[in-house]
Amino acid sequence: MIELRHLTKRYRTTTAVDDLTATIGPGVVTALVGPHGAGKTTLLRLVLGLVPPTRGTATVMGRRYADLPDPMRRVGVLLDPPGAHGGLRVRDHLLWLARSNGIPGRRVAEVCGLTGLEGAGRRRIRTLPPGLLLRLGIAGTLLGDPDTLIIDGPTTGFAPAGATWAGTLLRTLAGAGRTVLVTGRRIDELDGAADRFLVLNRGRLVADGSADDLVRADAAESVLVRCDDPGYLARRLTAAGAGVRFADRDALLVTGLRGADIHRLTVRCAVRLHELTPQHTTLEQAYRDLVGSRVAR
Fold first, then answer.
1. Which of 35, 46, 93, 184 lies in the 20 to 30 Å Cα band around 293?
2. What are the b/e assignments for 206-243, b being 16+ CB within 10 Å?
3. pLDDT value at position 54?
4. Where is the signal peptide (predicted)?
């Protein structure tokens, strides 16, 4: 379990993390998402004790990370691509990691099996494509069979099939009772992997919930309307208390009135309708509404 209490980090005039409180528990994949500069990487560094907080606390399994005995057996961490010598073979790199942390060498074969590296053990690291390099990093986090995993961008660098594999692995690991915290800039890349989203924007926690929770919170019912005279209809809808914006040159997006009410108004106004379609909020749209134009494409 990871516990954050009023966690704050300021750099002179910039607040990178702003009074953040959250509990990240076992059994689910929790994704920390937000645009570039939202504070995700700073938050992970605070959790791992790489930078001191200005205020507040961050604990892992009830202790500061620096106070954990045998940290590699407690927490598996991947913040950057694995810092491995390109001339080393995959198996040798993992074996060195294991032995330097008191982990039995047999664990190397086990994590290679978990991460699809069985056939890559003799390859030199400099020859690995980005997807296999990321698998190697994930394999390193699993060597100690830790209860907690912290992985920055677990699907970045993968082709779609690899991203699906990573999501399935993370869910499997969480399903076995581990605490799994991952990060990403694009919420759609983590939709299939994460059970819970913590959305950061400018250092503040602006949403916390499942994909369905985020969509429901954003789901002001709207109706797409196409007609012969959208300008005139927009004025009449606004006068009736609706929210109206142009979706394109001849289409309106209307909130605050049901489709049946809009239809009755068009009949009274003698406006010919071409389309009247209820709209459904997507997870991506809910995320964009939370973080605005700063979201990465």
1. 46
2. ebeeebeebbeebeeebbbbbbeebeebbebbeeeebe
3. 97
4. none
Q: How far apart are CA 81 and CA 40, in angstroms?
A: 17
Residue 277 CB contacts under 8 Å (≥ 6 apart), including other chains = 223, 224
Give me the pLDDT at residue 20, please: 97
Residues with Cβ within 8 Å of 156's Cβ and at least 6 positions away in sequence, in order, are: 134, 184, 189
With a cut of 50, which residues of the chain have pLDDT below it? 294-297
2-217: CATH topology is Rossmann fold (3.40.50)
Residues in the chain: 297
Give residue for tokens 């994460």.
Answer: 194
Q: Which two tokens stand for residue 245?
A: 């914006």
Question: What residue has token string 């819970």?
Answer: 196
With tokens 């080393």, the residue in question is: 88
First and final CA of the chain: distance in angstroms? 32
Token pair in block for residue 151: 């992985």
Rounded to two decimals, the pTM is: 0.81
CATH architecture of 220-279: 2-Layer Sandwich (3.30)
| Residue extents of the structural domains in the chain | 2-217, 220-279
Predicted pLDDT at 32: 96
- Tens digit of pLDDT for each residue in 136-162? 999 999 999 999 999 988 877 677 788
pLDDT for the residue 162: 83
Q: What is the DSSP string of 153-178?
A: STTTT--HHHHHHHHHHHHHHHHTT-
